[in-house]
Amino acid sequence: MLPAQVSEADAAEHAPHLYPVIISSPDSDPQTLSGVEMDWNPPNSLSCRTCHRVTAAEPTPPWSEDLRNFHMELTILHGDLTCGSCHDGDDHAELTMANGEEIGFEDSMRQCAQCHPHEMQSFEIGAHGGMRGHWDLTRGPRERDHCVDCHDAHAPAYPTQMPLFPVRDRFLDEAGADE
Amino acid sequence: MEEIATRTMSPPRFARLRFLWHALMTATEGPLPYLLWMLVLTLVALVGLHAWARQASQGLILTHMTNQVLWGLYIANFTFLVGIAAGAVMMIIPAHLCGDREMRRVAIIGELMAIAAIAMCLLFVVVDLGRPDRLWHLIPFLGRLNWPQSILAWDVIVLGVYLLLNAALVWHQLFSHSLGRRPWAAWHRPAIWISIGWAIAIHTVTAFILCGLVSRPFWNTALMAPRFLASAFVSGPALLIITLLLLRRWTRAPVGEAPTQTLLSILRVTVILNLLFIGCEIFTVFHTGGSHSEGARFLYFGLESDSSLVPWIWFALALDTVAALMLLHPRSRRLTGWLAGACLLATVGIWIEKGLGLIVPGFIPSPLHEVVHYTPSALEWQITAGVWALGLLIFSAGLRVAIPTLCRDVGAGEKTP
Amino acid sequence: MSDLTRRLLLKAIGGALGLAAVAKALAPLRADGEETTVEGFLRKSYRDLSPEEIQSLIVHLEEMTRRVHGVDVTIRDAPPIPGVEFGFALNLSVCTGCRACVAACHRENNHDRPSAESYIRVLEMTQGSLDLAHSTTTYDHPVPAPGKFYMPVQCMQCRNPPCVRACPVGATWQQADGITVTDYNWCIGCRYCEVACPYHARRFNWTTPEIPAAEINPDQALLANTLRPRGVDEKCHFCLHRVRDGRLPACLEACPTGARVFGDLRDPNSEICRVLAERRTFALREEAGTAPRFFYFFED
C-alpha cells in the first residue's frame, strides 16, 4: 500500500529514482504447538493447514476448553474474534476479508486495517510501527515493520517490559525523584 | 589649565617605571602583621591555585556541579562580587557628585575595592570554565564574541571595561601624586562620571544574565536588577565601612569620621530597601503559586527530599534583619565594634542570599523538574578561598600603596623615590 | 645602603620561592590526559575555517582517535542539504517508555559510558497532566505502567533557540536545515547555553568521555558525534551525520513501536508533514516562545 502511494506521489514530479519502502512480510505458513506427540520433525509444531486442510475448523469460540487443550501455545486474546474471523475455513494459510475476498498472508495488513483503520492510517503517515533506513528515498530504501512484527495476531496487546538504560546522573536518585 | 594639562601629559622620563618600582617596593614591605597577613593570603591563594590546576587537568567532574545544577559556588561568588564592585561606587557618588571633600580624599579606597572585586569576578568566571585554555575566544576581534546577542558577551565587556576604568583611575591618581601633582581634571572627572554609570551597568547586566532566561522561572523577574543593586549598595558600603574602621584602628591613615558616617547613612536606606525587595519577591512568588514558584519553594521550604538551602536562607534573612536593626540603632553612629558587627552581619547575609541562595534555586528543580542535590565539593571551597585570598592580596597591596596619598595636602606626604 | 641591599635580597629570595611554589601548585596541569597542541590552541571557529582547514581538522581528529584509542574512524564534513528543513514528531500514544531510543543515542553519539549520557531523557508522565512537576525520569518498573504515559525529551531544534542567543562566543548556531550545532573545538565551557535551555536538552562533558575502543561508533561527522574533549557542551543534532546522508536518526530506528516520525518539513508529502497536517500536534513549552521543530501528539 504505502510503497505504491509514495511512488505515485513522486511520479507526478520529474521523479528521480526512488528506492522502495519494504514492509517486512509475515510468515505465510502459520504454525502452532499441539499437545499431540507426532513421529515427524518438528515434534509438536504443526502448520495449521496440516490439519485444517482436511478437517474443517469447528466454529468453536476461542475460550473453549477443547480448543485450548489441543492448540497448546495458542493464546487467543483478540477481542471477540474466532479463528474463522480471519482465517479461511478451508485453508488456514489463507485469510478471508470481511467481504469474503481471499487474500494471502503477504496482504494481511489489509485485514488488520478492516477493524483498525486509524492505526493503519497512522502507519501510512509513519506514526506507528518501527522503521529503519532512509527518510530520503532518493538516497536509499526504507524498511518497515509489519503489524504482526509487534502484535501477535492471536493476542495483539503490546507486552509490558522493563525499561532499558536507567538514568545514572550524579546526585539524582530514586528518593529524590517525584512520585 | 592649559599648563597643567601639558605638564601632566609629559612627566619626566622613566617616571612611570620608577613609580611602578616604588609601588612594588612599598607593597612588599611593612610592619610584621602586614607581612604575616600577606603571607597567609599567599599560602591560601597557592592552595587554591593547586586545586584549580587539578580541576583544569581532570575536568569539572571534581566539582559537585551536574547537568542539572550547572552553576554553583563559583558563580554564586561571582554575582556577590559584582555587587561589591558596583557597591564601591557609593563612595564615588558622594565624593564626586555631591562634592563631599572628606569622602573625596578616601574615595580611592572604593576604587581599589572595585578593582579587587572585579579581578575576583573574572577569576571566578575563569575557574568556572570547562576550557580555560580557550578564554581568548572571548576577546573582542581576536576571538568571536557573540555581541550583541549574548548577555554574557555584554557582561564580559562591561566587567572588562570597568576593571580597566578603575585601574586607570587609581593609576592616574597615584602616579600624579608621586609627581606631586593633582590629577588631570580634564581626564579624571569624565572618567569618574563614566565609572559611576558603569558601576550601575555591571550589576544590571549581571542581573540580566540571570533574569533574561525563559528556562529559569526563579530568576525570571524584573525585580532582579533592582534587587541586585539594592543588595550591592548594602554589601559594598558595609565592606567599605569595615575597611575604614580597620584602617582607623590599625593604621595611621588619615581617615576621618565623616566618610564612614556618610556610608552609614546610605546603608541605613539600602538595607531597608533590600529587605523590602526580598519581601516583594516572596509575596509575588508564593501568592501566585504554581510550578513557577517551585524554585522559591525549594529555597525557603525544601522540595521533596531536598531542603539543603532552607536553614541557610532563613539564617541569611535573620542576618539581614538583625543587621538592619543594628544599623538603625543610634549606637551605630558611634563607629565602634557595634557598627563593624552590623556591617559584617549584613555582608554575610547578602553573601548567602545573593550567592548560593540565588544561583542554586534557579537549577532546582531543573526544567524537567528533576531535583538534584548540590553541595559544593572540598575542591570548590579551596578554589573559592584561593580566589578570595588573591582578591584580598590585591586589595591589601593597593591600600598599602595608596594610603600614604590619603593626606589632606596633595604632594606633601610621601617623598618621591 | 646595606639595609636596602639586604631588603632587596630578601625580597628576591621571597619572590623566587613564591614562583617555585606557583610552579609546584600548577604541577597537575602537566599530568593532563588530553594533549594540548599549539595548533589546537590557536584553531579558529568552524565557521571561520576554509575548506582546506576543515580537511586538516578532519585528518587531525582521525589521527588523534587512532593514536589515543587505536580505532580507525571516518569523519566527514556534513553540510546541510539545500532546501531541506528537518522536523520531528513523537506519537505519545504508542511510546511505551522503554528507553530504547536513549540507549541508541548513547551508542550512536559516542557518549561517556560511566555516566550513561544520552541526548534523550524520557519522562514518565501522569495521565491527566502535562505539568512536568508530576513527572519522573528515574522510573524503574515494567512499562507502560497503568495511569502513565511517556514523553521522551531531547533537543527541539528551536526556530528561536535560547542556547544560540546565550553563547558568548558563537560556538553554537543554527544551520540552514534547522539543526542547531555545537563547535566542540570552540566552546569555552561556560554552560550558559545549557542554563538557557528550557528543555534540559544540552549536556556538558564534566570529564573526558570514556568509551571502550570496541564501542566507538566509527561513522562520524564534524559538529556531530566525533569524540568530544572534556569541558565542552553538546546536544542532540538529529544525528546530522546520518540524516544529511538521507538516513533516519538512530533514536528513530531504535524505537520498537515507531512512535518517532522524522522528515523534511518542506516536502508536503513527507511523513512529518502528513503528521503535522493530519494529527493534532503540540510543542512542549510553546509558551516559552522557542518555536520548536519537535512536536508531540496523541492518537485519540
Short account of what is shown:
The complex is a heterotrimer of chains A (about 180), B (about 425) and C (about 300). By secondary structure, chain B is mainly alpha-helical. Chain B contains 15 helices and no strands.
Compute the CA-based radius of gyration of chain A.
Answer: 21 Å
Number of helices of chain C: 9
Outline of chain A: globular
CATH class of the largest domain in chain C: Alpha Beta
| Main sheet strand line-up of chain C | 10-2-12-11
Order of helices and strands of chain C: HHHEEHEEHEEHEEEHHEHEE
Written account of the structure:
The complex is a heterotrimer of chains A (179), B (417) and C (300). Chain A has 179 residues and is α+β, with helices and mostly antiparallel strands. Chain A has helices at residues 2-11, 48-52, 65-70, 83-86, 108-115, 117-124, 147-150; strands at 21-23, 31-33, 45-47, 95-96, 102-103, 131-133, 142-144. Chain A has a three-stranded mixed beta sheet with strand order 1-7-6, with no helix packed on it. Chain A has a two-stranded antiparallel ribbon with strand order 2-3. In chain A, a hairpin with a 5-residue loop joins strand 4 and strand 5. Chain A is globular, with a radius of gyration of 21 Å. Chain B has helices spanning 2-9, 15-27, 32-58, 73-87, 89-97, 101-128, 151-178, 185-211, 224-250, 257-288, 294-300, 310-328, 337-354, 356-359, 378-402. The two termini of chain B are 27 Å apart. Chain C has 300 residues and is α+β, with helices and mostly antiparallel strands. Chain C has nine helices and twelve strands. Chain C starts with a helix and ends with a strand. The mean pLDDT of chain C is 95. Chains in contact: A-B, A-C, B-C. At the B-C interface, helix 3 and helix 7 of B face helix 1, helix 5, helix 6 and strand 7 of C.
Blueprint of the fold:
The complex is a heterotrimer of chains A (179), B (417) and C (300).
Chain A: H1 2-11, E1 21-23, E2 31-33, E3 45-47, H2 48-52, H3 65-70, H4 83-86, E4 95-96, E5 102-103, H5 108-115, H6 117-124, E6 131-133, E7 142-144, H7 147-150
Parallel strand pairs in A: 1-7
Antiparallel strand pairs in A: 2-3, 4-5, 6-7
Helix pairs in contact in A: 5-6
Chain B: H1 2-9, H2 15-27, H3 32-58, H4 73-87, H5 89-97, H6 101-128, H7 151-178, H8 185-211, H9 224-250, H10 257-288, H11 294-300, H12 310-328, H13 337-354, H14 356-359, H15 378-402
Helix pairs in contact in B: 2-15, 3-15, 4-6, 4-8, 4-9, 5-6, 5-8, 6-7, 6-15, 7-8, 8-9, 9-10, 9-13, 10-12, 12-13
Chain C: H1 2-25, H2 38-42, H3 51-69, E1 74-76, E2 86-91, H4 100-108, E3 121-126, E4 148-153, H5 162-166, E5 172-174, E6 180-182, H6 192-196, E7 202-204, E8 219-221, E9 233-235, H7 240-243, H8 250-254, E10 260-264, H9 271-278, E11 281-282, E12 294-297
Parallel strand pairs in C: 1-8, 2-12
Antiparallel strand pairs in C: 2-10, 3-4, 5-6, 7-9, 11-12
